[in-house]
Amino acid sequence: MLVVMWLAAILAGVVHVLIFCMESLWWTTPQVRARFRQSPEQADATRLFAFNQGFYNLFLAIGTFAGLGLVLLGHPGTGLTLVRWNCLFMLGAAIVLVASAPQMRRGAFIQGAAPLLFLLLALVHAAI
Fold first, then answer.
1. What angle do CA 57, 35, 6 make, to 5 degrees?
2. Which end of the chain is less crowded, N or C, counting CB atoms within 10 A of the terminal residue's CB?
3. Distances (CA, A) of 104 to 56, 67, 68, 69, 81
4. pLDDT digits (tens, 9 = 90+) for 33-55
5. Average pLDDT value for residue range 42-69
6. Measured at the alpha carbon of residue 87, what is the angle toward residues 46 and 6, in degrees to the nearest 5?
7. Residue range 83-93: average pLDDT?
8. What is the Cα–Cα distance from 87 to 63, expressed in whole angstroms?
9. Taking all residues of the chain, what is their mean pLDDT, rounded to a whole number?
10. DSSP label of 111
């Protein structure tokens, strides 16, 4: 169970690094515009907002990886708290996305599935 829990946290971080890349680096490319359902004009108009939002995703990933690193360095309480906190925010953002833009439910699932899995397994692990 711990292996799956760790893999879920790592996957959550990797997904959020990819979201950072899409929003902050590749926002106006045709592939990313299509994924976010943006016209070239919309992408240009929202470029600054997407750039900023991408960094939120990057910081969530960094926080998750830092928490895992703290666990490896012998600080499991602090590390797991940091991972849980970041995964909770990732899941919250996915819920907000699907609630505010139901047509983006696939993206919300991609964004929120791994953090949800980590959080559920962490609850089970804590109960054992």
1. 40
2. C
3. 19, 29, 29, 32, 29
4. 999 999 999 999 999 999 999 99
5. 97
6. 125
7. 98
8. 9
9. 97
10. H
Q: How far apart are CA 49 and CA 11, in angstroms?
A: 25
Give the helix ranges, DSSP H, for 21-104: 30-35, 40-72, 76-100
d(CA 66, CA 14): 13
The Cα 42–Cα 94 span in angstroms is 22
Q: Locate tokens 């692990």: which residue? A: 125
User: Contacts by 37-42 with C-beta closer than 8 Å and gap 24+?
Assistant: 37/103, 37/104
- Contact predicate 94/111, CB 8 Å: yes
Residue range 7-36, pLDDT digits in tens = 999 999 999 999 999 999 999 999 999 999
Determine the Cα–Cα distance for residues 69 and 32; give it in Å rounded to an integer. 31
